[in-house]
Design brief:
The chain has 133 residues and is mainly beta. 7% of the residues lie in helices and 41% in strands. The protein is elongated.
Length: 133
């Protein structure tokens, strides 16, 4: 999942494109996108061979987090527990203009103190305080 507000991709020396590590010659913002010049990709035809591939970043390149923060990749697959019962697993997190929400099947639960008691990344558990109506 890409955080549009992050500048991480602007400062990396390399990224993984598909399943291959590639050197980044330079990167810059262009409106709401980031344009990267990948070493060895020198024309549109070569760039087109990368279309649709996922760009990944090594975990050690992620910025440090403050207490209580976590990355989406850290909670995907986490068990979600309410009143000591597992109600499912986090499939993803969706971002809306006013709130982010964990997704468990068709259910979306806002990531707010009203609904989330705590997120235990180390043990892969999200404990709910309440369920949405």
């Amino acid at each position: 999942m890409f955080n549009a507000d992050s500048d991480l991709l602007l400062d990396l020396e390399s990224v993984k494109v598909g399943d291959k590590e590639r050197i980044v010659d330079h990167a810059r913002r262009a409106n709401e996108a980031i344009l990267m010049k990948i070493r060895g990709i020198d024309d549109r035809d070569a760039a087109d061979t990368l279309r649709g591939m996922t760009i990944s970043v090594r975990r050690d390149a992620f910025p440090e987090l403050d207490d209580g923060e976590f990355y989406v990749c850290d909670v995907e697959g986490a068990r979600v527990v309410f009143e000591d019962k597992e109600i499912g697993k986090v499939t993803t997190i969706r971002s809306y203009p006013s709130v982010e929400a964990i997704v468990i099947g068709e259910l979306e639960i806002p990531l707010t103190d009203a609904f989330i008691e705590h997120v235990d990344v180390e043990n892969g558990v999200v404990v709910l305080r309440a369920m949405p109506d």
